[in-house]
UniProtKB/TrEMBL annotation:
Taxonomic lineage: Eukaryota, Metazoa, Chordata, Craniata, Vertebrata
CDD domains: ASRGL1_like
Organism listed in the record: Cynoglossus semilaevis (Tongue sole)
Domain of life: Eukaryota
Family designation: Belongs to the Ntn-hydrolase family.
Binding site for substrate: 194-197, 217-220
Protein name: Isoaspartyl peptidase/L-asparaginase
Amino acid sequence: MDLLPVLVVHGGAGTVPRERSEQSVSGVRSAARAGYAILRGGGSSMDAVVEAVAHMEDNPSYNAGCGSVLNVKGEIEMDAIVMDGKALGSGAVSAVRNVANPVRLARLVMDKVVFYPPCGQCFAQEMGISEVPPESLVTEYSRMRWKKNLEPGANPVESQMGKMGTVGAVAVDREGNVACATSTGGMLNKMEGRVGDTPCIGSGGYADNQVGAVSTTGHGEVIMKVTLARLILFHMEQGDTKEASDMGLAYMKSRVDGLGGVVTVGPQGNWAARFSSLQMAWAAAQKDSLHYGLYAGEHFTQSIDDPH
């Protein structure tokens, strides 16, 4: 049975406040449709994951692009990565500001640069990417959470698994090429210049046509300790996507007490959306069906063309 093409997205692992859960689920479904439209039209997996992630960067429901969390100074600094499974090409940016879609900038790094540019902002200008005013990326919700975590007695570590999470996508196209993309605003109230797991190959994402593609979400420091994306692909060499995803997440929990989530896809079209946190908004598009959920064990299905 032909399972290709496939696209799977996540909107971040954590705990989504009840009043924002509907927006989170609606957003991943919309992003999955946007990315799958490219695949259905014969487009590449790379084009599809970038489109899906950019769609979520433009949605203030997530911690990426517009809606990113603020650092300790009340400013936005964003990270992103893309990786192409065909030639193992990758591109990443870290701590970029005033860019609406860091994932598109990461794609340009992969396509245009033979070494990492010393200044992501300068590279963006070189590539003709327009700067956006800093305030256009800051939401009232982000500012409220930033202020709340500056209050005496606040626990910023506890707050990290809140509503706002890293976004990501994986896909396999009709040619069997896999790709991944991940984008984030990082940790709430983080130190200025802090770079987490997202732009690190093997942690924030990894793609290899011979095995599959992974995009991760969760606490960056613990994800980096176990290089979660690459660890899951190692397990995928031995088993299926769901089992491999669960094994990687279980190891991260037992070894470094870390929670998180992943979306994975294999070159034959098998996919998974798995998480050890309370929630992770996810959606998958395959064979003109849209699958989605928020809680563990939750799995709804509808037609990809159903707008509701």
